[in-house]
Amino acid sequence: MAFAKDAPNDSHDDRTYQSPTDQFGQDPVAVSDFLGRVNLNSAQIREIAGLGAVDYIKFDEQGITPGALPSRGVMDDLCYGTGTTYLAGLTFGGTWGLIEGLRGHTPNFKLRINTVLNSVTRRGPYIGNSCGILAMGYNSINGIISSMRGRHDAVNNVASGALIGAIFKSTAGIKAATTASVMCAGVAGAWTALKQHFFKH
Amino acid sequence: MARYGDYTRDPCPWVILNDTGGAFAMGAIGSGIWHFVKGAKNSPKGERIIGAVTAVKARAPVLGGNFAVWGGLFSTFDCTLKGIRQKEDPWNLIASGFLTGGVLAARGGIGASARSAAFGAFALALIEGISIAASKFFAPPPMIQMPDLQPPNANVSGT
Predict the structure, then answer these.
(1) Residues spanned by the domain of B100
(2) Which chain A positions have a beta carbon within 8 Å of B51's beta carbon?
(3) Which PANTHER family match (chain A) (predicted)?
């Protein structure tokens, strides 16, 4: 009750948040008059923050690569790349096993299901695991090369592909290792070209 | 506040890929080291490196794949439960562990499946319990809140 007397112009019922008409009869100023002209996109806020004017807003310090495949760094590339490649390999190998298992004439339905399951679980994980190892090695080597060179470009990707191909088949002899190296470098180069063409726009 | 939703994880469909890849990497690298040492130990003296590399080549991808399937299924069930229940709490994770364990042992019959499911739920409950205990232990003490002041126009119609 003590506060009621101190209440000023009783504009509490007013929902438009305008200042009242002052004694000179000038038009009231609404909030939209001055905030409507402010254009604070994120780039400008970063500049202002850089000058020390806005120090209570925390920004993400890590950059995000632009395009349809955003990535916050090596960990993202490693996890998403390996996961996607593993699942793609698993699906491809599983389909191959499915086709292989459905071929052939087994009289019994249960036997057929068993055959199909056996062939799916033989081919699928084999292809999936190999693709996963290749992708994991590719992304790790790519991260190491990028941090050593200090930049990201297509040369890193192709070199990483070549290295992981060579390492993957290193115990099978020089010829097999070279073939695998060239193939993986080719796939890495094709993937880089695809990304730059489709996703960087 | 970090218990109510982990803000470092990506939104739900995409996080499945992230978890699959992360689990694969953990499984492959961890089992690579383990089987390198084991293969070297179990090989005759002149052939330790060859034995180690052979063991890694045989086992590391398989274990990576097993971990990846476990992680991917777990994350899928977690996202599904979050979508159905519209809540984020430790029960989602425990139930996901239960379902994952059950599904992965399904080919062995009901008994094996139930045992695997129970083990999965127990492991997750242990992990979540430790995680909650650790966050309570390390959390700052709760701030004393000022009592809300009455707004000045509460009695504007009076007097």
Answers:
(1) 89-129
(2) none
(3) SD19278P, TIM23
